Amino acid sequence: MKIENLYKTYLKHRKVSTDSRQIEPNSIFFALRGDNFDGNVFAKQSLENGAAVAVISDKKYFIDERTILVEDTLQTLQQLAVYHRIKSKYKVVGITGTNGKTTTKELVSRVLSKKIKTFATFGNLNNHIGVPLTILNMPENIEIAVIEMGANHLGEIYELCKMSKPDFGLITNIGKAHLEGFGSQENLISTKLGLWEAVKHKNGIFFLNANDEILKTRIIDYDNIIKYGNAEKSVVKATKVFDDLY
User: Fold this and answer.
1) Largest Cα–Cα distance of the chain, in whole Å?
2) pLDDT, tens digit, for every residue of 129-164?
3) Which of 13, 65, 96, 136 counts the most CB atoms within 10 A of its CB?
4) d(Cα 33, Cα 61) in Å, to the nearest integer?
5) Would you give the DSSP letter of residue 114?
């Protein structure tokens, strides 16, 4: 099925799930496959649990017109998210970093929601499955989305940015955690900086942690930077910071 036709089906439902146990009525179930599971097995169950459509990749699980057969369900899920993002008018704030991603995402979304209609990544759905799910499960009237992005291998952040197309970006920090998935500190740094590259490509606004030694030496020569922290040249400064309130 062409992505344009699948998108028409999506617009009728606007709810997507990859878990047959947590199906919302009239949603679309994507039967993902992994090393230790095959979502195709649960296509029938998802329809019985209320899904309107099941997208599968194994023809032996085809049931009836409610079943859509594709070559790769994960790739199709991601392509559908990209197509929907292109068609949408809301802005995106992308957030990544070694530490503090989820807390920062929650703080940013809470502040923005005071003024505009805001949607944020639910929980820690911040990977190659969670980001497209976030995009596709967003309400229609959203003005800005705060999307958290995590990575465990080289280049993953930029791949997530190709789906979410962030207008604004923030990297909390770059530490030395989880190097096993990247091979080196430099690979970790370049992966996190994928968000910076995506925002710069879109001529968006990047919020720079001016206290981070790595970030402030790598993110330069760009006009749309807002520095924050307690460094001397920060536009937004933190004052009266306490380590312990008690």
Assistant:
1) 65
2) 999 999 999 999 999 999 999 998 899 999 999 999
3) 96
4) 13
5) T
